[in-house]
Write a structure and sequence with these properties.
Order of helices and strands: EEHHEEHEEH
Number of strands: 6
Strand content: 15-25%
Strand order of the largest sheet: 1-2-3-4-6-5
Distance between the termini: 36 Å
Length: 183
């Protein structure tokens, strides 16, 4: 079984990779390692930090809220723009990706979770999600996606202080020290 594939036949994209991930707590780490290798190979290291955080959050969400495998898809839209999407078997579109939950609101400091998709929406240039009906192969579920690209300012390091993260959860954001600087 091939777990990483590339396709150049998709209209409008310069390249695309798909990685099938088992329902495993190590899936987010595997996704980050794969993403780093793909971006380095395509000369897109300028979006690596942000893309790595967002892919990790989407894959973690798939692991936590579904019971089956997930698929990470990376698609280069240009030399500086990347789309990250994650399919999982749970058809429920969570807020704020459901577009019905209203404007983004900070997560209460006492909450144990709920920051991952908030981070995706904060750092992505575009994001969305939609349920997928069953097809010929019986797959349903949902697809959550986001896009990142190099731009002046607004990157992960520039905006970290703007994300309200309670003191007892600061180290939960991988690569971020309690003073909001990247490690």
């Amino acid at each position: 079984m091939v777990t990483v594939s590339t396709s150049e036949c998709e209209e409008g994209s310069t390249w695309a990779y798909a990685l099938q991930l088992p329902h495993d707590p190590r899936a987010a780490r595997i996704a980050r390692v794969t993403l780093r290798a793909v971006l380095a190979g395509h000369g897109m290291s300028q979006v690596q930090d942000t893309a790595e955080l967002l892919a990790s959050e989407l894959v973690t969400n798939a692991y936590r809220y579904s019971t089956g495998p997930a698929t990470l898809r990376l698609r280069g839209l240009s030399h500086t723009r990347l789309r990250v999407s994650v399919w999982d078997s749970n058809p429920h579109i969570p807020p704020p990706f459901d577009k019905r939950s209203g404007p983004l609101r900070p997560v209460p400091a006492e909450a144990d979770g709920g920051r991952g998709l908030f981070l995706v929406c904060h750092y992505a240039e575009a994001w969305g999600g939609y349920p997928l009906g069953g097809d010929l192969f019986g797959r349903g579920g949902k697809l959550l996606w986001c896009e990142v690209g190099s731009r002046s300012g607004g990157g992960l390091a520039d905006g970290l202080a703007a994300v309200p993260v309670p003191v007892h959860h600061r180290t939960a954001v991988r690569g971020v020290s309690p003073d909001h600087s990247l490690r």
